[in-house]
């Protein structure tokens, strides 16, 4: 009986017993490792790992694609071999009708855009010029082949260039001149190996617009014949000219003739004493530059 009462009393007081409040250490532990925060922390770590792995994978794929693209581009830009020619405007610089092919180590005239007006092909290894080089380029106004290795030029090379005004063949290996277009205003063939027999008697006769003529530092034995009236500057210095006549610059049969356009004639560096030919300059406003005694 007493035992039964004891059990009943114990049952009555059990609900009234409250658990002791958690200590501060316990609170910190729950906060750090509570269910919600713990799952969130795990999710965060998992997300970062997957994100970084995914990012690395994407970066690797991107790098692989970039490398492949670079390889493809490098193959595309390589010069074509065998009979295929590299497009001129990749090899040279094309800008508003001007083509710049300077110091690109070419040995022939490259195919030019049909609208080309100016070609600068200086300091290369070109050895020959032909009519085919300019057959379909009728608008050319200026050609500059200074500093090449040109030995031969076909006579018909410039025949279709009806607009050509300036032609420079300086510093090459020419021994003779081709037929020149009558439209030229400037012709430069200095620093070659041209002899007098390499210039035909009528080479300059019809060049009625020619203003500047540069034939210095060659192997000429005489002044070229039939120099046009339009000339202002004539450079013949450092050749092998040994004599001139009264008809070289003037007209022996017309003492009243004045060649008034000529501003400069250079003959220094030639084995000629200009003072021995006083009647050869009576039509000039200025005496030629050179030795007189």
UniProtKB/TrEMBL annotation:
Briefly state the protein's biological role.
Answer: Induces bone formation in conjunction with TGF-beta-1 or TGF-beta-2.
Looking up Pfam families in the UniProt record yields: LRR_8
Q: What are the TM regions of this chain, as residue ranges?
A: none
Q: Which UniProt keywords apply?
A: Disulfide bond, Extracellular matrix, Glycoprotein, Growth factor, Leucine-rich repeat, Proteoglycan, Repeat, Secreted, Signal
User: Which is an annotated GO molecular function term of this record?
Assistant: growth factor activity
Which PANTHER family does this entry report, sorted A to Z? EPIPHYCAN-RELATED, MIMECAN
Q: Where is the signal peptide?
A: 1-19
Entry superkingdom: Eukaryota
Q: What is this protein called?
A: Mimecan
Give Gene Ontology CC terms. extracellular matrix; extracellular space
Q: Where in the cell is it found?
A: Secreted, Extracellular space, Extracellular matrix
Coiled-coil annotated residue ranges, if any: none
Please name the GO terms of the biological process aspect recorded for this protein, alphabetically.
articular cartilage development; bone development
Tell me which species this is from: Chrysochloris asiatica
The record's similarity note reads:
Belongs to the small leucine-rich proteoglycan (SLRP) family. SLRP class III subfamily.
